[in-house]
Amino acid sequence: MYTNRESVDAGGLMSYNADPAESYRRVATYVDKILKGAKPADLPVEQPTKFELVINLKTAKQIGVTIPQKVLARANKLIK
Question: Is 73 helix (H, G, I), strand (E, B) or coil?
């Protein structure tokens, strides 16, 4: 299991991490506030709220792992 999607694209079994696109949008919001004069120390610390589960079915088949249907249903992306 990996923390980045690129590893799964390269053949890893699965990854679960904060959605990078959502994280970049949140960073842009903070940069905007700082450029408009906000003090970084005054900005709240945020935790991710959107996560991404990616499963590589090709790898699972090669190593003989069966992914339960409930897990597959929760995946954001399946690599076949």
Answer: helix
